[in-house]
Design goal:
Number of helices: 13
Largest sheet: 11 strands, mixed
Shape: globular
Structural class: alpha/beta
Strand content: 25-35%
Length: about 675
């Protein structure tokens, strides 16, 4: 879109692209469906014109014999689009936040339209951006979040502010942090109209959608709560000509992620409208998209027990009110969204309200009740940022931290806040989607899984994700596992493009076959960020290891080694003072995954074997039956910042900073270190 042509038509929804009138004439193409709809409603088709910031509306002439609208006598070079009083939106977009409450600090109010931050569009680049600073920058403050952002979710206005999150009390559970400008709302609607030929109109949570109208309808921030203390928010994107009494109920495309308004306006909204349009064009079957905040924007990772009940309610509501087929849901997500998809698919408390038929999952952050050193490791430094957000304390990552209220360690407090328990057996059974109970439920419901993982991920090593894949395969869940070497916390292609193709193909009667392991390598030239992967066909399961870049003396770190079962491997760290053997032996733990991979995860300590300084990693392997060793080339280190030597820097102590600052210090970018054969 030419940014000089666009202007705000609120509350009208643009039903064509924005153009400039050449010599006072503008020509528009409009589908007969929309024309017929407007005429049946006895409404007007208007041409909206904007020149020098002033907007006026004129009656549009009737359609020409060629099927186009030719509008003459307009101001020279005026920006124009077509609108109609039959297609209007309820703006501004609901946030459920009222800035006037709590003596101006703000608080939850159903139907409110204020925000703690702003979501807007840069018309020069056609990109969505946000203005939101949530963190407390006062170095003397122990708290992570700025006080003005700490009206933690409640359906009643709190009498006092809470400075930290806690179990079932997260930022943005029942309100969006971000006020959407009318300009952004109209811009996104125009993008959808230009790409699909159908307008997009916004409804409040209380409004009922209309039957059989030629437009996408968006129900914004519908409140979903099984209990009042654990609310969540959902967007429903309904297809053109949606009806509450269809011949067949609508299949569902589902994602659960962070802030509800950002989910729709920045991450998923336009893409999902394009996918739903393709469902109609290619498969002849309309569908509905649901975007869900999982019960919180910050400090929540979709693992609190209310997730399970709220999922049951969400999909029951979608069937009863929006005619969705709750037994035919495709769940899509990356990172926290992948975790949400897993929790939804394997929900141990699914009451029969829904079934995830397909789960398309990229790089889930699989928390578990394991030892502190395994889950809080400099090998995966972004977890230090997670612990500060989840606890609300800047220094919760430190081993000497104690919660001043309950005397819990930071790790215990993180688990308790996210899950409601710090007991390993309970967490690993009911809240870790890598546990067998989730795989059993997916097998019973017939869920098919496409799981993509990037090695050298600064959030999590790959051994728990491979364990998840192994559980799924062993239980008989149809699984395609895709491994992207050195991609970190990203995937080798566009997640939503992949999901859209699978969704459309399935509705067209051509569902993909599931099975096997696919491998992708980092391109030799990084001409795009994130990079696009290349499919490879290795003769054996590639070897790689994941290890820290920086480690403080007398502290622990996790190392993960992956390779063919039975391979001899050796991992050493070398500097001028000598050689330290970190691992030497065979990979013996068999798996049922194609390629027969094994993985070995262990904890190292920077004990008196190490000196302060820089070591260089070296990694070699010997395949079963071979005599020769293969050493992994150092140029394959997983970095996009130009560094090519896989080093381990030993320091005296970690700096006394917040967990977020420590995460950035340890990561030196977003990829953890290691070597990879490909």
């Amino acid at each position: 879109m030419d940014q000089t042509s666009f202007f705000n038509t609120a509350p009208y929804s643009p039903i064509t692209d924005f153009i400039k009138a050449e010599k006072g004439t503008a020509i528009f193409n409009l589908s007969p469906e929309i024309t017929t709809f407007i005429n049946k409603r006895s409404k007007k088709l208007l041409i909206a014109c904007n020149l020098n910031g002033k907007t006026e509306y004129r009656n549009c002439p009737v359609q020409t014999a060629s099927g186009r609208y030719v509008c003459e006598g307009l101001p020279e070079d005026a920006a124009c689009t077509l609108v109609s009083d039959a297609l209007t939106s309820m703006l501004p977009i609901t946030t459920h936040w009222d800035a006037s409450l709590c003596s101006g600090a703000g608080g939850y109010h159903h139907g409110g339209t204020d925000g703690l931050g702003v979501l807007d569009v840069n018309l020069k680049t056609n990109t969505v951006f946000r203005k939101l600073e949530t963190f407390d920058l006062n170095p003397e403050s122990p708290y992570v979040f700025d006080q003005k952002y700490n009206q933690f979710s409640t359906l009643e206005t709190p009498e006092k502010q809470n400075l930290i999150p806690s179990y079932e009390r997260y930022i943005g559970e029942c309100w969006s942090l971000l006020k959407v400008t009318d300009t952004l709302a109209v811009w996104l609607a125009s993008e959808v109209a230009k790409s699909t030929g159908y307008p997009l109109i916004y409804l409040t949570p209380e409004q009922n959608p209309e039957n059989n109208i030629p437009a996408f309808q968006v129900i914004c921030n519908r409140l979903v709560m099984f209990r009042t203390e654990s609310p969540s928010l959902a967007y429903f994107l309904l297809p053109p000509f949606w009806t509450n009494q269809p011949k067949e109920k609508y299949p569902v495309l589902f994602s659960g992620f962070y802030d509800s308004n950002e989910n729709f306006f920045s991450t998923f909204g336009k893409k999902y409208a394009l996918i739903l349009n393709e469902c109609i064009k290619t498969a002849g079957k309309p569908a509905v998209a649901i975007l869900w905040n999982s019960g919180g924007t910050n400090a929540c990772y979709s693992m609190q027990p209310s997730v399970f009940s709220n999922l049951n309610l969400l999909f029951s509501l979608s069937e009863n009110e929006y005619a969705c087929d709750s037994q035919n849901i495709t769940a899509v997500g990356g990172s926290r969204g992948a975790l949400t998809a897993l929790m939804a698919a394997g929900n141990p408390f699914n009451d029969g309200s829904y079934r995830i038929a397909y789960a398309i999952i990229n790089n889930p952050i699989v928390f578990s009740g394991t030892k502190r050193a395994e889950s809080l490791s400099p090998t995966t430094p972004l977890i230090f940022a997670v612990i500060t957000e989840a606890t609300g304390y800047k220094t919760a990552w430190r081993e000497d931290f104690k919660d001043p209220e309950h005397n819990l360690s930071g790790h215990e407090l993180m688990l308790n806040n996210l899950i409601g328990s710090r007991y390993v057996s309970l967490i690993d059974t009911y809240f870790n989607p890598a546990s067998p109970i989730f795989s059993i439920n997916m097998r019973k419901l017939g869920t098919k899984v496409l799981l993509t993982i990037g090695t050298h991920d600064a959030f999590t090593t790959k051994d728990p994700i491979l364990h998840l894949a192994e559980n799924l395969r062993e239980e008989g869940v149809p699984l395609t596992l895709r491994i992207a070497y050195r991609f970190g916390h990203s995937e080798p292609d566009d997640m939503l493009d992949l999901a859209g193709k699978l969704f459309v193909d399935t509705l067209s009667g051509n569902p993909p076959k599931f099975g096997g392991v696919q491998h992708f390598s980092m391109p030799e030239v990084l001409d795009k960020i994130p990079p696009i992967g290349k499919r490879i066909y290795p003769e054996h399961f590639p070897c790689f290891f994941e290890a820290p870049k920086i480690l403080a003396m007398n502290t622990d770190a996790k190392i993960n080694i992956v390779g063919p079962t039975g391979a001899d491997v050796e991992l050493i760290a070398t500097n001028e003072t000598g050689v330290i053997t970190l691992f030497s032996g065979k990979l013996i733990e068999k798996t049922k995954l194609e390629g027969n991979p094994s993985y070995s995860a262990f904890i190292i300590n920077a004990d008196d074997r190490f000196n302060v300084g820089t070591y260089i990693y070296a990694f070699k392997f010997r395949l079963p039956g071979e005599q020769n060793w293969h050493e992994l080339p150092q140029q394959n280190t997983p970095s996009i910042d130009g560094e090519t030597i896989p080093y381990l820097q030993i320091i005296e102590a970690y700096p006394p900073v917040s967990g977020m600052e420590l995460a950035m210090y340890l990561s030196k970018n977003y990829l953890s270190w290691g070597l990879s054969e490909v």
